[in-house]
Amino acid sequence: MKRDLRYNLMACLLLAGFLFSACASKKGPASTQISKEEVLKQMQLANSYFMQKWPDTGKPIYTTRWRPSNIWTRAVYYEGLMDLYKIDPNKKYYDYAVAWGENHDWNLRNGIETRNADDQACGQIYLDLYEIDPQPERLAAIKANIDGIIESKLVNDWTWIDAIQMAMPVFAKLGVMYKDESYFNAMHQFYLYSRNVEGGGLYNAEDDLWWRDKDFVPPYKEPNGEDCYWSRGNGWVVAAYVRVLDLLPKDHAYAAVYRTDFKNMMKALLACQRPDGFWNVSLHDPNHFGGAETSGTALFVYGMAWGIQHGLLDEATYREPMERAWQAIAQQAIHPSGFLGYVQGTGKEPKDGQPVSFSSIPDFEDYGLGCFLLAGTAYYNYLASK
Hints:
Elements: H1 2-25, H2 36-53, E1 61-62, E2 66-67, H3 72-87, H4 91-103, H5 117-120, H6 122-132, H7 136-152, H8 162-178, H9 181-197, E3 203-204, E4 209-210, H10 231-245, H11 253-270, H12 294-309, H13 315-332, H14 366-384
Antiparallel strand pairs: 1-2, 3-4
C-alpha cells in the first residue's frame, strides 16, 4: 500500500509539472526586464527607417489614389514622433514635424469648415508645436475649426470610435491652453454622443468594449457568434483616454468619467490578450483572422504603461501583460531595417487590411509606427520612473 501511495504521489507530481510547463509555454515571450535605453533604441530604429523613406514631408501618399500627407494616418505618426521628441529631443524630429506643418500651411485636409475628426487629427501636432514655439499660424486653422464647431452646438459628428482619438485630445488641449471650459464641455458632449447615443451607444457596458460604429452593433456578430470588437478601434479609444487624461486637471468632473471608463476597458482587454503577447484583430473571435497584430497591441501597451505610471492601473496585475506585449512587438515585429511587421492595413473591422504578417506591407506605413512610438515612449517613461 505504501509503495502504491509513493507511485501515485510521484505520478501526481510529474503530471503537475507537465501541466505547469504546458501553461508556461503558452505565455509567449519571456517577461524579462528590459532597459529604457533598449526601448529607446528600438524606437529610434523604427523611426529612422520611416524618416529615410519619407524625407519629403509634403509629398502626397499614394495607395489606390493620391492623398495629401496631412491625413489622419500621418497625424498619428506625428503624435508618436512628438512623444518621442519629449524623451529624445533630437532637433531633426522637431524640424521634420515643423516641415510637415509648413508644407500644409498649418491647415486641415478639408479646410477650417470640416467637421470630420480625421481632418482634425493634425491639430494635435500643430498645438504641440505651437507650445514649443508660439507662432500664430500654427494655431490659427485648428482653433478656428474647433471654435466654429462649438458655436454650431452640434455634437453628433463622432459616429465611429476612431474619431474619439483623432479629435478629442484637440478639444482638451485647447481647453487647457485657454483655460476655457467651453472646449471641455463640447468635448464631453461629443464623447457622450458616441458612447451612449450613436447607434444606441457604441460602448457596451456589459463587455466594457466598443463597437467600431453602428454597423457592428448587434444583431451583427462575428463568425463565432460573439460581438465584433475590433482591436485597433478599441485601441484608438484607449489612446484618447490617455491623451485627454494627461491634459485634464485631475479634479475635473469629466476626468472622473474617463478614468472609470478607461479602467473598466483595460480590465476587459486583459482577458483578450493572446498567449504570445499580441492581441488579435478581433478581440472576441480569435479564429476570425486571428494572429499577431502590432497597431492594436501597441495602443494597449500605451494605455497600460501610462495607466500604471499614473496610478490608475494596478502594477501587479498589468505589468506582466504589458511587458509581454512590448516584447512581442520588439522581438517579433521589428525588422532589422526598422520596418514594422504585423500591422493591419486601414479599415474598420477584422477582415480589412488583410493579410497581416511579418512581411506584409500595409497600405499606409505611418500610423502603425505612430502607435508603436506612443507605446514605446509611455513604456520608456514607466521604466524611467522605477
